[in-house]
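Need a sequence for this fold. Nothing fancy.
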């Protein structure tokens, strides 16, 4: 099969497009003929070697955390899916593997693509939407009526987070973004939008029950004054120094700090699928690249200016 791969850590130039072995499904896995995938910040952070303590030195590596396509083969123990089904999900091998013509999904973490979504739309969903849901529900413990702030509300994760916060019953959602994206964030359902170039949300004293920093640009220490009593700060940026500082600060506060990486959960993806099918959540796609131009997609993602998701199409 053709795939994007790299044989050493480094800049986008280390990415290659060429032949790699087609994976074989284990008993609990399905082999997906990939029709669309995407680029997420974690993909180029892995490629750069920022997470090598977790991803190790075994090469070549195929990046990509989002799979959308058709079932090409099933393992001997698979019962929910059959060849030809439209499926999507997040590979759970810990390193990626989705930026290729074929990829593996474990049966428990896969879901049927909603009928109203194209492959390109579905390819934009799994990692970003799962991150948003788990940040707000599992870690932020969002309750009905809570006041929520999404920092980075126009990005891939943030655009889902605004909508999912509303779907979970948030009483008031505030999003931060650049001035050019304020109308987009309002269209997603935000009650208030902050131009981060003119106002720092941390100055909003005791305003929020949950702060989700979807872009890793702040810290619990900086944000805690904007949290109400028993408020929760959530981020997906596992910088060791920041994690330690935030946890120490939270230990002496009624407020809490949570750092996490999204997990592959089929039940969570099924809930997201229901929202997508009902139109409760919609997908924002910024740019689409063919698989062979993944390096260009990485470079664009690294600018930090993407509105919504960056999708890769696989012919």
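Here you go.
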């Amino acid at each position: 099969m053709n795939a994007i791969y790299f044989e050493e850590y480094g800049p986008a130039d280390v990415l290659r497009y060429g032949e790699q072995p087609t994976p074989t499904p284990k008993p609990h896995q399905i082999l997906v003929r990939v029709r669309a995938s995407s680029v997420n910040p974690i993909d180029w952070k892995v490629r750069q070697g920022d997470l090598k303590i977790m991803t190790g030195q075994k090469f070549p590596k195929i990046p990509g955390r989002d799979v959308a396509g058709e079932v090409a083969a099933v393992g001997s123990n698979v019962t929910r899916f059959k060849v030809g089904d439209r499926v999507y999900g997040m590979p759970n091998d810990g390193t990626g593997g989705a930026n290729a013509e074929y990829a593996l999904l474990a049966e428990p973490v896969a879901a049927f693509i909603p009928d109203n979504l194209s492959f390109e739309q579905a390819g934009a969903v799994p990692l970003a939407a799962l991150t948003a849901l788990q940040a707000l529900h599992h870690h932020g413990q969002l309750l009905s009526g809570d006041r929520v702030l999404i920092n980075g509300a126009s990005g891939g994760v943030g655009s889902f987070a605004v909508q999912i916060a509303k779907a979970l019953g948030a009483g008031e959602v505030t999003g931060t973004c650049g001035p050019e994206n304020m109308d987009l964030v309002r269209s997603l359902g935000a009650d208030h939008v902050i131009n981060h170039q003119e106002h720092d949300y941390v100055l909003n004293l005791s305003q929020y029950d949950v702060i989700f920093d979807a872009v890793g640009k702040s810290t619990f220490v900086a944000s805690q004054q904007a949290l109400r009593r028993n408020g929760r700060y959530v981020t997906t940026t596992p910088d060791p120094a920041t994690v330690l500082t935030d946890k120490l600060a939270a230990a002496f506060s009624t407020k809490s700090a949570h750092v996490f990486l999204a997990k592959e959960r089929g039940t969570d993806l099924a809930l997201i699928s229901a929202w997508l099918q009902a139109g409760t959540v919609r997908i924002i796609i910024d740019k689409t690249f063919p698989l062979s131009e993944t390096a260009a997609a990485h470079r664009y993602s690294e600018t930090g200016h993407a509105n919504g998701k960056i999708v890769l199409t696989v012919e």
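For context: The chain has ten helices and 15 strands.
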